[in-house]
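User: Structure please.
Assistant: Input sequence and predicted structure:
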Amino acid sequence: MDLIFYVVLLLLIEMNYLFDASLGIFIIRLLMGINMIGHSLPKLKDLKGVAKFMKGAGVPEGLTYATALLELVGGIALIFGFLTRIAAILFLLQFLSIVLYVKGIKMKSPYLMINNPAASEIDVIYLIISLVLIITGPGIYSIDYILKIPFYL
């Protein structure tokens, strides 16, 4: 009977290590990375057309190219947890500029998406996820952790 107790106890301890905060951080990184790659692909397919559309919203053409590149490379970085904080800082800056400048000042978009697909609601969510990743770091399920990349990166 004691043997069963110790086996169950060891399994519970192991489960605790498997289901710690790093698993939640990994899931957040994975979903944000996939979404960012998903946002980059249409931009990369028609970069000139997207740049022209974004110019109408007050975004310089070069910034559209940089955004498409950030969403692709940064999305891949988040999925693998490589230079996570740097990617998250760049995403934070991107979504701050989208929320405050593009959608706030230029487009005067509402916050909620009830009747307006150009609302800033999802952008604020991405901004908060970026902030969380800057604070928490990549977690143990990441290349950063395996390579022991310093905390400040």
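The chain has seven helices and no strands.
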